């Protein structure tokens, strides 16, 4: 009987050499007469251990990592694919402390199943959420999602149930579900991991949303820089359609719902929901004025639910386990779990899914293991390029939307980028303004002109030209962008700039 060996087919794992490792495992097994089947799974998110090779045994899966192609021969010499005492052996993967301490909901299947195998998905709990939805009324589904406390995981943290109810209440024949998979924030990769490692979860979440609000068509707007995710998702949609999980008569229920995959063109602004809609409709990605809200007049002027990948991926488990189960995780108004992505100068980078409430310090040191350089961590940026820079004095802030708002920061998509004490925070502030200037859609003056002037003012400060007057001018400019911009790009760019000025003022002083 063949022994199943798992090697991730995940963008980050492939970047670490997973394809070469998979080929080497197959060739070594063939030359030694060992009957092995290599399964290309998703990543579990332990990126400092990638490529992570796993072997299926009667007592669970054993892990080895990080494995380079040159290590594979030694693994076989030590007894692989059976239990062996190779120096890179990790023991049972589900007992790795880094995984054991997590509370995985969205990522419960990641790294465990073959991402495109429908039977594997079903055996591991797939489609149970849809089956629950098909037995309920639309109002019951929306009420469960509302009662769960699920909020949008794309950054705005708007209550998901309120958005769905608004669309449900619109008395029109055509409605849409749009998944925002334009994951453009620095240090974020959770959307990509779901799509590459558990794509049917996203399809199931969109299908439930369609049943809940009366929509029969969904669109996934995927970031253009994700070619592997595109291939995986396109095949998953085709397989789901062939198996009658999508189409005109979902599983004989009489309900219709189908999904279409659309690729973005690399514009950061299209992560903003109304710019995304403009792009989907074939126009230049520019922000729309609101009102009307997309839930009332969205895609093709029809009521539209717009949620990001993690929001939709959370929905099946909410229906399976109930609103109270989800609501009982977390703290305050931040309920359920958040996939946190550790990146930058961090020793153990990867994805950590936990209920809201753990502090930044516990994440950075308990999971991340401190900086990769071994130097003190000076600052972290949470929430992408528009997120505030937080100093060590704020590392005891819990992961909670309101706790972050109280310190003029935001959680955003859950990405954390780490910097050690060699970072120049004035340069980081300049980058925030420069990024905004490059990515602005150009529709409003505060964002388009303000960010360009912001770069110039910071250059004057760093160059020692009338620094005090330019400091005042920079703060005034940030105030104008904050209160006058049409969308969050211009409106949030002041966060990293003002936080750098507040917590790291010494970096803005010209050194002799």
β-strand number = 16
Gyration radius, in Å = 24 Å
Q: Treating each run of at least 4 consecutive H or I residues as one helix, how many helices?
A: 21
* Mean pLDDT, all residues: 95
Written account of the structure:
With 512 residues, the chain is of the alpha/beta class. The chain has four domains: 3-93, Glutaredoxin; 118-327, Rossmann fold (3-Layer(aba) Sandwich), CATH 3.40.50; 330-420, Ubiquitin-like (UB roll); 425-508, Up-down Bundle (de novo design (two linked rop proteins)), CATH 1.20.1440.230. 41% of the residues lie in helices and 15% in strands. The protein contains 21 helices and 16 strands. It has helices at residues 11-15, 18-32, 69-77, 97-100, 118-123, 128-134, 138-148, 160-168, 190-197, 199-213, 227-242, 273-280, 309-321, 323-327, 360-367, 401-406, 425-439, 445-462, 467-484, 488-492, 494-503, and strands spanning 3-6, 36-39, 53-57, 60-64, 89-92, 176-181, 217-222, 258-263, 304-308, 330-331, 334-335, 337-344, 350-355, 377-382, 389-391, 415-420. The strands form four sheets. It has a five-stranded mixed sheet with strand order 2-1-3-4-5, covered by helices on one side. A five-stranded mixed sheet has the order 13-12-16-14-15. A hairpin with a 2-residue loop joins strand 10 (330-331) and strand 11. The longest helix is centred in the last third of the chain and has 18 residues, at 445-462. It is globular, with a radius of gyration of 24 Å. The N and C termini lie far apart (72 Å).
